[in-house]
């Protein structure tokens, strides 16, 4: 092996999955800010809709896992949700006991401090089923106006993504449920800008199938695995351990995309 062999393939861009979620409460402003401070060029967060139509950052539709509270976010107004603490005490103890559930508007305001950073805004299926595609998309687009050219609407729903592109000219990212031939053929018809896939659903070896997209593979916490995926054709790798991954000199990120 030559001294430069490990650098023959460019390092993949790293996406901070729910922010720096290995060390901070997931989908919190604190997790996003820490990820961006650490050097992340891409962040990802999940969006649910409140009862009064406010998009909030939350992966689950319920609050028991992150807030240790009963109830569904879809049944609560923003006034109530804004007071809820999401410190994930079971996982993180009392370190972040005062961290509160943020809105999408607050996350976009935070991102304005990093004009080169992009955000994958994952619109959750539970909210689409509860409120419908159009209402959910409209509420998200209203709040992402300030970072419109840097936001990528992300979803398992191809119908939502088609609507986002047709009505708003949004960049889109489709999340695969499988990576079989029929789903990849559908991806070619949809032609998303990004195609997300769980690493465990990929073939074990060989180049990733080509298409009019950039591959984004999750959930990766091993730098060697990230570089191996880049050699197979993954442009991006998603990780909850963004700070830890960025400490590896082989994964140094290039200039922020403007």
What does this structure look like?
This protein is an alpha/beta fold. It has one domain (11-61, 103-249): TIM Barrel (Alpha-Beta Barrel). It is built from eleven helices and nine strands. An eight-stranded parallel β-barrel has the order 1-2-4-5-6-7-8-9, surrounded by five helices. Helix 8 (158-168) links the parallel strand 5 (151-155) and strand 6 (171-175). Helix 6 (125-131) crosses helix 7. The longest helix has 11 residues, at 133-143. The model is unreliable at 1-6 (pLDDT under 50).
Elements, N to C (H/E): EHEEHHHHEHHEHEHEEHEH
Distance between the termini: 36 Å
Determine the CATH topology: TIM Barrel
| Number of DSSP helical runs | 11
Topology:
Layout: E1 13-17, H1 29-38, E2 42-49, E3 55-57, H2 64-67, H3 78-81, H4 89-92, H5 104-111, E4 118-123, H6 125-131, H7 133-143, E5 151-155, H8 158-168, E6 171-175, H9 181-190, E7 194-198, E8 214-218, H10 223-232, E9 234-239, H11 242-246
Parallel strand pairs: 1-2, 1-9, 2-4, 4-5, 5-6, 6-7, 7-8, 8-9
Antiparallel strand pairs: 2-3
Task: Give a quick set of tags describing it.
globular, 19% strand, TIM Barrel, alpha/beta, 258 residues, eight-stranded parallel β-barrel
Explain briefly what this protein structure is.
Helices cover 33% and strands 19% of the residues. With 258 residues, the chain is an alpha/beta fold. An eight-stranded parallel barrel has the order 1-2-4-5-6-7-8-9, surrounded by five helices.
């Amino acid at each position: 092996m030559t001294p430069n062999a490990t650098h023959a393939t460019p390092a993949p861009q790293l996406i901070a999955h729910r922010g720096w979620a290995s060390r901070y409460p997931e989908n919190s402003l604190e997790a996003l800010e820490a990820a961006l401070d650490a050097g992340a060029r891409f962040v990802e967060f999940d969006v649910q809709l409140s009862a009064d139509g406010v998009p909030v950052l939350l992966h689950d539709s319920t609050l028991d896992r992150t807030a240790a509270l009963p109830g569904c976010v879809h049944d609560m107004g923003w006034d109530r949700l804004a007071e809820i603490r999401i410190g994930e005490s079971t996982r993180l103890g009392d370190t972040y006991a005062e961290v509160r559930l943020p809105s999408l508007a607050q996350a976009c305001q935070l991102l304005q401090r990093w004009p080169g950073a992009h955000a994958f805004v994952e619109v959750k299926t539970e909210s689409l089923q509860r409120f419908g595609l159009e209402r959910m998309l409209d509420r998200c687009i209203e709040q992402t106006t300030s970072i419109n050219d840097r936001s990528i609407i992300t979803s398992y729903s191809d119908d939502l993504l088609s609507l986002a592109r047709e009505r708003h000219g949004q960049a889109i990212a489709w999340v695969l449920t499988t990576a079989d031939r029929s789903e990849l053929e559908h991806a070619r018809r949809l032609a998303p800008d990004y195609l997300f896939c769980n690493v465990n659903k990929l073939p074990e070896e060989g180049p990733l199938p080509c298409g009019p997209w950039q591959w984004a593979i999750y959930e990766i916490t091993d730098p060697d695995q990230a570089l191996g995926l880049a050699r197979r054709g993954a442009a991006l790798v998603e990780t909850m351990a963004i700070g830890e991954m960025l400490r590896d000199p082989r994964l140094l990120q290039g200039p922020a995309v403007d």
